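Input (structure):
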């Protein structure tokens, strides 16, 4: 499994790096990130789109046609629209979530920021995100760009990944630790 994950990560990083270089040349780093974020939201909210991207059943031609229609309907013209079509034509749609994540990290580094992945049991308010950014800035000493993902299965708390460090304050992890401790006692 690690091999597959490493392969996807490598593909995603290469594609994201190429897209970043093109965006930098065009002076559109922020607008490309905004378009990628919009597309990621579309993936997160549509099981059909997620299936199109992740399933090897669809042919490259089917994926290309579908992505072309989606890009046009969503108004993702220009660099991101063309990029997604190339990714579809090359049968690399499975890597799009990784490409978006890698692009965010590259853009954050370019701005002098550190990128953090945050998993929360529920959506964070703007105030909570601001407070979290301030807390992470205190730890890292740099501005922090956060990417929040909602995962109700963690029950409560947060899981924060900054670089190679992970802070897990999720209720699920605490309950698992308590369960393990009780097994050892009994």
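Output (sequence):
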């Amino acid at each position: 499994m690690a091999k597959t994950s490493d392969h996807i990560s490598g593909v995603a990083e290469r594609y994201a790096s190429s897209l970043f270089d093109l965006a930098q040349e065009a002076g559109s780093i922020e607008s490309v990130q905004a378009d990628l974020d919009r597309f990621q939201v579309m993936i997160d909210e549509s099981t059909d789109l997620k299936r199109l991207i992740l399933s090897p059943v669809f042919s490259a031609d089917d994926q290309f046609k579908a992505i072309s229609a989606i890009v046009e309907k969503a108004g993702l013209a220009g660099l991101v629209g063309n990029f997604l079509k190339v990714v579809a034509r090359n049968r690399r749609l499975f890597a799009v979530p990784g490409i978006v994540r890698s692009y965010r990290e590259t853009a954050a580094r370019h701005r002098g920021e550190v990128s953090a992945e945050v998993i929360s049991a529920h959506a964070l308010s703007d105030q909570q995100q601001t407070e979290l950014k301030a807390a992470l800035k205190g730890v890292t000493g740099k501005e922090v760009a956060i990417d929040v993902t909602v995962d109700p299965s963690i029950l409560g708390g947060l899981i924060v990944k900054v670089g190679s460090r992970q802070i897990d304050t999720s209720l699920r992890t605490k309950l698992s630790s308590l369960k393990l401790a009780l097994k050892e006692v009994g």
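Notes: The chain is about 65% helix and 15% strand. The two ends are 35 Å apart (CA to CA).
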